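Today's session is about reading a structure prediction critically. Students often jump straight to the picture, but the first step is always the sequence itself: look for stretches that repeat, for charged clusters, for runs of hydrophobic residues. Only then move on to the predicted structure, which in these notes is written as discrete structure tokens rather than atom positions. Here is the chain we will use throughout the hour.
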Amino acid sequence: MAFERAEKMGQASIRFDLFELDAGSGQLRRRGLPVDLPPQAVRVLVMLAERPDEVLTRQEIKKALWPGQSYGDFDGRLNFAVKRLREALGDDAERPRYIQTVRNAGYRFIAPVREQKFISADSVDCSIPGEPLTGSTQKTLVAGKGLPLRGNRFLAFVALVIVAVAVASAFTLRQHGPGQPTGAEGPAAVGVPKAENVLRVVSVSAIIPEARQRIVIKGTGFGLHVPYAHTDSPYLAIRDLTGHWSAGRMIPQNSDEVMVDVENWTDTEIVLSGFSGDYGVKGWTLAAGDELEIAVWNPQSGVGPGLFHLGVSGGNNPR
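Below is the predicted structure for this chain, in token form.
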């Protein structure tokens, strides 16, 4: 089992992109914040991330997730787990950044990973650089029970640095306010804009009663998001308040299967290429005059929703 292997490895921590996966506990974090995932989806991620660039067959995964079970809709369960996993990662099955589907085989984890292992204090070399270990010094270093005099000075210096960092962190928290992200990744996170405390949708281009159309949403604080096609983005929804249906942002309340295809997503602009899936089925269509609500969340910070209301432009599709 993947978790059992992780425990033997000494609580391995696997990092990729903005994510950190604690394989021992099965906890996934994005920029330090926990990501909500069902256990089966986490176990699939652990299996894939532990064997990057290798193809894991669906049979291997099913055998690991449901050992000894010979009946049940295992394919459906696995499909659901992978779908939830891609939603949480912001991945796209057609243009994957993390999980690639290998046709008629299984899945491959394609993101570069960085694995770290937490080691015990007994294995840490606490000697002072450049100072040879004497017999007495060796005794004081056994099991981390003590440090030589110069080591104590160094420890005092480290403690002073920690106190300074704590004071600076407290000041930063007061500046940002409780619960707001302080940018754990810092400015060094190249290509990732600093999360905005306020997300605003300023304008939305005209929306017409057709499935395929170019929709441009402009504003601030949108963050960054990968393109999404033929599947739901967890961070965008278009709701037809008149027709009582919605597209995008997969939530339990959404009983329809209409998707919003994301063509491009930057911190100030989102470009959509229209609706896909079951648009036009069961009354899930736009009609001239329908009231729409656009809802946007920031994928990095979770801030949102930013809301915007507009009506469907005229056309030959009255409700």
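Discussion point for the tutorial: The radius of gyration is 25 Å.
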